[in-house]
Each structure stands twice: as C-alpha cells, then as structure tokens.
C-alpha cells in the first residue's frame, strides 16, 4: 500500500476500521496547508469500508485504504507505528486479534482460538503488552467475558482469572481500567493481577467503555442511567459524574483529544449509520465533525514517515 507523504500527522482519531489488508488503494494528493487530524471509516459498500484522513472539521480528507467490513476496535501503539485490531478472516466463528504496521504491511494474527470473540485490544504504555477481551458461550450456555494479556508479538497469552469484564485498558500506573460483567456493567479499576477491585460507578444501569484522560485525572464513559446511552465524564476516583450529551439516539465509543479538553464520540444516526462529534469536557460546544463516519476509538500522535512504504 502506497501512502503519499504528509506533514506531521497530529491527533489521530482512529475509527472502528483499520488501515490494512489491501495492497492497492487510491490516494488523493494531500494539501500542505491542512493538518490531517482524524482517521475514520466510511462504509462505501455493503461489505467494505474505506479509511480516510481528515482535518478536525471534516472538510478536508484523503483516502488512505480500503478494508473489509469485519475489522474493529483499532488501537494504535504508543510509538504510532503499529495498529492492533480484531477481525474475522475465516469461515469459523472465530474473531481474533491482529497487529500490523500502519501502512498495512507485516500483518500478523496474534490469537487464534476457535469459537471465541477476541476484541477490544489496547496497548500498555511501553508498547510491550496488549490487553484484550475474550467472549464466548460456555458449555452451560452462559456468556463469558474474560480479560486477557499477551506480549505484543502474541506470545505468553494469559487470562486474568480474577476479572470478568471487557473493554479493559492498561493505566500508566499498571492498574487496569475496565467494564465489569457482574450485574449491570460498572466501571472499575483493579490491580494487574485482578486484585483490589475498586468500583467507580454503582447503579442499576449499564456503565461501559471507559477511557482514561491523557492527564490521568478523568474517565470518559457511556451510561444509560438517564434512559438513553450517553457520554459521561467523572474524576478518577468516581466523583463528580457528569453527563455531557443529551440526545434521543445512542452514543458510542468516547475518545479523548490528546490535550484532554475534548471528547470525540460516535452518535447513531436515524439511518443506522454513525456520525462523529466532539464536545468539551464541561459539555459545551458540541459539534459534528463527520457524517457517516464509523465509531471513534483511540487518539494518538503519529509521524507521517510511518505512513509511507
């Protein structure tokens, strides 16, 4: 895949598709006057998506790659050179974790366990470890949600047996931020071995998709406590929980801007597609960024040299 040189890319917002799995794509000549700050997926056909770079307003964009419709939860490595994601690339009911360079080269399948759904990969701060969710139906018919760790090359895969949940993220201090499974899902923090679980939300509705702010002081998450799935923010200790969005449709996949002043999220449109919005962390200045973009995931700094092959 050939990517034309860009200025340094800042503030990448990664969509639920990834920059992989096609050897050829059409790329529009980028403008040197535009800071390309967003990466998102756009569903162009029933079974395929395309990936675009865009400025933060959504007005200027260039096509990067075509991908399959089976990719999701992309997570950029801390050095901005690789992307981890989940995908289904065989006829079995097997969703696995993959990793590759952000120019689409050196794709590797890291997990390959039959009849499970491995998803939501996330990197440790040093880039050496990937945490991910594994879900499956047990022999007694119960749905299982497990948290797993592995080295970035796929070796030493191990379950954190003390934890049940998904959407886990590794915090800079080594602890794990995750969405617990017990009862309505709650936002919790635990030690790396699953001990000392601290529950930050405690109500009879689902709280999910936690994302830690860049300064480590706040958590963005989703909750349906007010009757609809909306974006919330709270302090790292669970205090000062605040609703940021008020809509009649569901919000998904919050992601922090690198400076911690805004949260990007996806909002389901009336046609079943997703639009990407941004909002200040006090709930002000909500603005649509992109129409029909797929779910936002993670924000990273990436140098354009890694987008060249």
Task: Give a structural overview.
The protein is an all-beta fold. It has one domain (9-307): TolB, C-terminal domain (Neuraminidase), CATH 2.120.10.30. Helices cover 0% and strands 49% of the residues. The chain is built from no helices and 24 strands. It has strands at 9-15, 38-45, 48-54, 61-68, 71-76, 82-87, 96-101, 108-109, 117-123, 129-137, 143-151, 158-170, 176-180, 187-190, 198-199, 207-212, 218-223, 230-235, 242-243, 251-256, 262-268, 274-280, 287-290, 296-302. The strands form six sheets. The protein has a seven-stranded antiparallel sheet with strand order 9-10-11-12-13-14-15, with no helix packed on it. A four-stranded antiparallel sheet has the order 5-6-7-8, with no helix packed on it. The protein has a four-stranded antiparallel sheet with strand order 16-17-18-19, with no helix packed on it. The radius of gyration is 18 Å and the shape is globular.
């Amino acid at each position: 895949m050939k990517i034309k040189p860009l200025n340094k890319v800042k503030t990448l917002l990664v969509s639920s598709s990834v920059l992989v799995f096609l050897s050829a794509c059409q790329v529009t000549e980028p403008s040197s006057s535009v800071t390309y700050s967003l990466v998102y997926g756009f569903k162009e056909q029933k079974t395929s998506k395309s990936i675009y770079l865009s400025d933060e307003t959504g007005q200027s964009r260039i096509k990067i790659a075509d991908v399959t419709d089976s990719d999701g939860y992309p997570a950029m490595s801390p050095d901005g050179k690789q992307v981890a994601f989940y995908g289904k690339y065989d006829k079995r009911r097997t969703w696995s974790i993959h990793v590759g360079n952000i120019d689409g080269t050196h794709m590797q399948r890291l997990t390959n366990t039959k009849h499970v759904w491995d998803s939501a990969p996330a990197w440790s701060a040093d880039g050496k470890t990937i945490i991910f969710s594994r879900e499956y139906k047990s022999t007694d018919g119960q749905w299982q949600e497990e948290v797993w760790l592995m080295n970035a090359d796929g070796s030493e895969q191990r379950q954190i047996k003390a934890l049940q949940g998904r959407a886990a993220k590794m915090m800079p201090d080594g602890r794990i931020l995750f969405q617990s499974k017990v009862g309505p899902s709650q936002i919790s923090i635990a030690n790396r071995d699953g001990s000392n679980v601290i529950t930050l939300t405690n109500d009879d509705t689902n709280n999910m998709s936690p994302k830690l702010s860049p300064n480590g002081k706040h958590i963005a998450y989703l909750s349906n406590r007010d009757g609809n799935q909306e974006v919330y923010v709270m302090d790292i200790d669970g205090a000062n929980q605040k609703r940021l969005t008020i809509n009649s449709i569901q919000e998904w996949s919050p992601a922090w801007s690198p400076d911690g002043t805004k949260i990007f999220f996806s909002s389901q449109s009336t046609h079943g597609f997703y639009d990407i919005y941004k909002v200040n962390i006090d709930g002000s200045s909500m603005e649509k960024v992109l129409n029909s973009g797929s779910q936002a995931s993670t924000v990273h700094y990436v140098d354009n040299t890694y987008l060249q092959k």
